[in-house]
Specification:
Two copies of one chain form a homodimer. With about 220 residues, the first copy, chain A, is of the alpha+beta class. In chain A, helix 3 crosses helix 5, helix 3 crosses helix 6 and helix 4 packs across helix 5. Chain A is built from six helices and eleven strands. The longest helix of chain A is centred in the middle third of the chain and has 31 residues. Chains A and B meet through strand 5 and helix 2 of A and strand 5 and helix 2 of B. The structure holds a DNA duplex (30 and 30 nucleotides).
Chain lengths: ~220, ~220
DNA sequence: CGTTTCTTTGAATCCGGTCAAGGTCCGTGG
DNA sequence: CCACGGACCTTGACCGGATTCAAAGAAACG
């Protein structure tokens, strides 16, 4: 199901200015795998005996309703753990957005790694708490924000990762829509509107910069 | 801010058929406190050095936007931990729905309780994972479900707590609305509609029973 | 350079929100 | 015991923001 070490050609958006947060080393535990665009890292309802960490690239988690509606849980970047939510099985699927490299660790392996295992378990704990916090933030966004506020929140959040430089979105409009609980058309319209209002500027549909941080922040409304 | 051991008269809905899930004992750690309807157990942005566990009654967590919009995070019942999401400060407030009794435990106290502390820390860990799962379920509901499906999901979830008997809602329509990302009017209309369709039956606005479990489940659409 | 996929834009529709009344439930006090 | 008052819930009419449907435009890819 999940391809082991599949090498893809260099068509990947190499994200030249990617904001590489320094990734604490995970030591020698686990295996590195490479996934191509759209490939599944793990699947909804599958057993959850591994945990995963993004080394390079970006990942989305998503969940499908039986009639095809989809909710994107979150997007993950280098240094982030994924698959933490799991009880016995995964509630969401995880898919690579572009080419990405993932470190895969068997949960059971941590028990027998002493020192190193304990250190990683601590990282997992704090990762889980952060995940819970982000998810709660996401709740607020989905439950109580307008389309315009949703898109503004999302862009501001993305822009933060790039520290004011030009930001590059690793996902398309459909992924944004499914994250924000909107349709792709609405996302597109709001992006257009935010640009018309001079709050952001796009160069192509995946690169943008914030032109008016204060104005954008005002829309986000903590 | 939070009243210690306030005794309220017996106007509380004593919930005679309340589904008392057996609560594992927390031993002698921590203090029990009683809160009256609407009282704050902890407040958004407050320091988070305690954890809390519902002993009796029901609790909602909620978060306020600066313009008054409110999102209810979740509802908690006897045995549930609350306040787990916290980094240094609480992201949500927690308020008592009716009269309720809460066991309050200073986090730092767990470190020095040996055996007992470790046992509770494990309960907290599994509580946090369950919380994350519930929150993700909530995401799906807020992002991708119609008003009717939202209300149906909610009622089905509540009904499950009462194992098919007549269920008693500890919260009012406004709380349901803020949990579901709807207005109070829409919640009311959907309840009326579900009743008209013969899926549920209300006796008063807080007691109901499921009349057609399959039909209701069909609306929920996993 | 043609084809496919993704994005944007427009027009019409509809679901849920808003505004405004009326109803119900309860507790209080005459 | 009943009248009153307040809080909460329900219902109706209308409105508007987001979706839907459709088509044109732009990017990515072979």
């Amino acid at each position: 199901m999940t391809a082991v070490s599949q090498i893809l050609p260099s068509n990947a958006p190499t994200s030249p200015a990617a904001p590489t947060s320094p990734i604490d080393d995970l030591g020698t535990i686990g295996v590195r795998m490479t996934f191509g665009p759209g490939e599944e890292i793990y699947v909804q309802d599958e057993d959850a005996d591994m945990i995963y960490r993004v080394v390079r690239g970006a990942v989305r988690t998503s969940r499908l309703l039986s009639d095809g509606r989809r909710q994107v849980g979150d997007f993950y970047y280098p240094g982030d753990f994924i698959g933490l939510e799991a009880g016995p099985t995964h509630r969401f699927s995880a898919e690579a957005l572009g080419v990405c490299e993932i470190q895969v660790i068997r949960k059971a392996a941590l028990k027998v790694c002493g020192e190193e295992g304990v250190r990683i378990e601590r990282m997992i704990w704090s990762g889980t708490v952060r995940e819970l916090q982000r998810t709660q933030e996401h709740l607020l966004l989905l439950g109580r924000k307008s389309a315009c506020e949703k898109v503004a929140s999302f862009l501001l959040d993305m822009a933060r990762r790039f520290r004011g430089q030009v930001a590059e979105l690793p996902m398309g409009r459909q992924d944004m829509a499914d994250y924000l609980g909107l349709t792709i058309e609405t996302v597109s319209r709001m992006v257009t509107q935010l640009q018309a209002d001079g709050l952001v500027r796009f160069q192509g549909c995946r690169r943008f910069e914030v032109r008016n941080p204060a104005g954008l922040a005002h829309l986000v409304e903590a």
